[in-house]
Amino acid sequence: MTGAMQRFLIRFARRLKTAEYWLTGKIVISVLALLRRLPPEKALGLAETIARRAGPWVGRHRLAVSNLRHAYPEKTEAEIEAIASDMWANMARLAAEYVFLDKLFDLDTDAATPGRVEVSGRDLFLLLREEKDTPHIFFTAHLGNFEFLPIAASNFDLAITSLFRPPNNPYVADYILQTRRGAMGGLVPSQAGAALQLARVLDDKGNVGVLVDQKFQKGVRTTFFGRPCLTNPLLPKLARQYGCDVYPARCVRLPGGRYRLIIEDKITLPRGADGVIDIAASAQMLNDIVEAWVREDPGQWMWFHKRWAL
Q1: Please, which pLDDT band fits residue 132 given cuts at 50, 70 and 90?
Q2: CA-CA-CA-CA dihedral for 159, 243, 205, 197, to nearest 10
Q3: Can you tell me the distance from the alpha carbon of 164 to that of 31, in angstroms, rounded to the nearest whole number?
Q4: C-alpha of 250 from chain center
Q5: Which of 239, 231, 221 shows the shortest CA–CA distance to 277?
Q6: Lowest model confidence (mean pLDDT) among 88-97, 113-122, 160-169, 265-274
Q7: Could you tell me if 129 and 207 are in contact, meaning their C-beta atoms sit under 8 angstroms apart?
Q8: Contact of 239 with 269, CB cutoff 8 Å
Q9: Considering Cα of 297, then 224, then 147, then 47, what sign does the dihedral take?
């Protein structure tokens, strides 16, 4: 094959991929726009019903089931499939919730009785809000509607700049980014230069939020559910550099379309003999915390992610 032909095929493949992204993006955004016309509860219920039926036919379903079998060797096939079905329902609700963030998030920080969204750890939010000259790091995982966490912090006047990984599809990514920007604090895409941007926030005594349950190709070797995986060392590196307190936070879906946001007491990252934060041991600690969260309700985590690919 000539060099000219190779270049032509590469260009053609790129254009084909762009066309695929455009078409997929149009479909996704159109579906979300149609859901927007329905009452939130009805739209979310419809999205869940469709996802439970369609999920087993999606290619990633096989990966999810395989990951679940490794994580829960003691469970039956029926139990594994039930968790996978709950996972698809959770992911469908999460996608549909993007168009209803303004209607679903009803947290009243002064109300004695919780609404659709309740907070466990309210006093911590209030305490951290007053520590204006101290940077903090919050970490979470892809559980429930994790997007509610920075929105809640904003409601408590606690500004957080969140690191996020945009979808591969640029059209869907733009749509989600615009939705997020209208409801929460600063956003930093997970790409080259992201660590520097977060470092600048901490330099200015700000707060950052990080998702820690994704594969990171150049990460440190750790385990998750007993299997080897690569984990992003960014959080422990930032904590070591700035001496920040680190707080776990998560979202849990409750029956009846409700949500509980949980912010936990700060953790103490492990240190080496020299007294410096141990990056690998700290990354493993984060994995262990997230694993405990997932085990509480495995249907609320994204098992179709290639978390264990080395």
Answers
A1: confident
A2: -80
A3: 23
A4: 10
A5: 239
A6: 160-169
A7: no
A8: yes
A9: negative
Single-letter amino acid code for the residue at 9: L
Q: Please list, residue by residue across 291-306, b when 16 or more beta carbons sit within 10 angstroms of its beta carbon and e when fewer do.
A: bebbeeebbbbbbbbe
Lowest mean pLDDT among 79-88, 196-205, 234-243, 277-286: 196-205
- Structure pTM? 0.88
The whole-number average pLDDT for the span 165-190 is 67
* φ/ψ (deg, to 5) at 252: -120, 130
Q: How many CB atoms lie within 10 A of CB 9?
A: 11
Rounded distance between C-alpha atoms, residue 22 and residue 111, angstroms: 44
Mode of pairing for the β-strands spanning 258-263 and 245-254:
antiparallel
Q: What is the per-residue pLDDT across 78-110, written as a single tens digit (0 to 9) for each? A: 999 999 999 999 999 998 888 888 788 887 766
Do residues 294 and 250 make contact, with C-beta atoms less than 8 angstroms apart?
Answer: no
Residues in the chain: 310
What the block records as the tokens of 161 is 């700049």
Cα–Cα distance for residue pair 11/219, rounded to 1 Å:
32
In this structure, are residues 215 and 150 in contact, taking their beta carbons and an 8 Å threshold? Answer: no
Query: Domain spans of the chain?
Result: 3-100, 107-300
Q: Which residues make beta-bridge pairs with 249?
A: 263
**Is 51 within 8 Å of 91 (Cβ atoms)?**
yes
In this prediction, residue 184 carries a pLDDT of 59
At 253 the pLDDT is: 95
Calculated CA dihedral for residues 240, 238, 151, 32, nearest 10 degrees: -140
